[in-house]
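Can't paste images in this forum, so I'm doing it all in text. The chain is below; anyone willing to post the predicted structure tokens underneath?
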Amino acid sequence: MKLKHRIPIFVLALLFVFLSAGMPLVASSADTAREIEQARAVRDQYNQRLYEATANQQALTNQSNQLSADLSWLATRSEEQRAFCAEVLQQKNDALIVMAQTASDYAHAVEQLDTKKEQYASRLRIMFDYTGKSMLEIFLESETLQSFFTTVEFMKLITESDEQMIEDLIEARAEADQRKADAEEAAVEMERLVAEADAMLAEIQGNELMANSRMYDLRGQLSAADNEAAVWAAETAAVNQEIGALTSQYNAQIEAEYAAEQARLAEQQRQAELARQQAAAAAAQQQQTPAPPAYSGGGGSFAWPVPSSYSITSYYGWRNIFGASQFHGAIDISAPMGAAVVSAKAGVVIMAQWYGGYGNFIVVAHGNGLATCYAHLSGYAVGVGQSVAMGQTIGYIGSTGRSTGPHLHYEVRTGSSDGLSGTMVNPLSFY
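Text version of the structure:
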């Protein structure tokens, strides 16, 4: 990855110190990557809920559209049915008018028939007077022959006319009866059609009422679905924004971690070069100076703690550090990074842990209040409670804690009950 900005060397150095001490300044890119994955998982859930809300929204919209079409159809049917009801009602009224007129005609025909019957009966009574006489009597009573024939013919015509009139009246009455029956039947049929039309109109209006109620419910559900979809859309947008911010943070952390790694590698190379130089100097000194003899006494010999190096860079006693006089209760033995550190005497490991400025720190108790201490190690080869033999590897040269380069800070304590108390004595007095 190409860095966008150059990072000052002192910032890299501080970052390296904090990282080496196990004290991260900010969350790592791995932590941010996990947060991004978690945010993406949440976004997937929100997207699923948004999809479901949108699908529900679309389904409700489809139902609403269908119901609107149904309402439009019902409204049209309602108008048509109202028009049909009005038409049938008009036909009913017309039929009632016809029926009333027919009843009037029927009554008039009956009245005429009764009148004609009365007239006919009256003429029959008059004619009866003639019918009681013989033709001779009628002839004798006639003033002239022509009058006789006229009277006879007239009586015959009257009789025939009355009979025809009676027949016509009977036919008229029969026709009036039929028209009355037809009108009454038409009125009954119109009553039935009006009732059916009213029932159908009531059914359509009931369907309209139910459809309107359903539409009201659907609009409420659709409004709720719109709100739900808007909420999930907003939540998804917020998560996307968070993912964007986390991604930017992740990229920045990757760059910072890359810079820190470059600083660590540079420091490692520096320490390796320093160790190489010190090893070379130690090798040169070793060629000129014989190894110190093993110390005998106190129940056994002491082994030199760094078999690969006898280069002492700081001795036991007072020394000047940064312009101040300080007592140094140990010796510092320079050696390459990772070189073996051995126990100076057989004993039991009572401490193997980070211990402030000592860095990675091991204490071996040898009995009778005697203990040896080994500081600034890069790693451990033993654990607390483990018994070790003299010369057994217990750790490795490092530069942890308060240290300026790879070396062993080696102490010997007497009168110690826990390896940390007691008196620090000159380690070289045991060799």
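The radius of gyration is 66 Å. The chain is about 60% helix and 15% strand.
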